[in-house]
User: What shape does this take?
Amino acid sequence: MEKLIACCGLNCAACDARIATINNDDELRKTTADKWRVNYNSPDITPAMINCTGCREEGIKFNYCEMCEIRKCVKMKGFDTCGDCREMDTCSIVSAVHKYVPEAITNLRSLN
Assistant: This one.
């Protein structure tokens, strides 16, 4: 499977928002919005919001990705990803992602 590693280490290539955007798939936008409303307790997510080209790619971002504190930190420090930061293993900002998706750490380490 293709990998497109986000600032935090998640694989954007496997994200349903990116897949729906790249394929212009309105049905996937709908099912993703339905799923994310429940999973993230965000009743305001609509299918129209499910558009993203990927965290580090040019183009549109899902609302959360656009304002993501991790992404902002990486950009502010002039890094490509959290994997470029010596503080990654102790960082309180990215730790929540790495706690629930340990594969993200592996993805970041594979970039170096």
In short: The chain has one domain: 12-111. Helices lie at 16-23, 26-39, 63-67, 69-77, 95-100, 103-111. DSSP finds six helices and no strands in the chain. Residues 26-39 form the longest helix (14 residues).
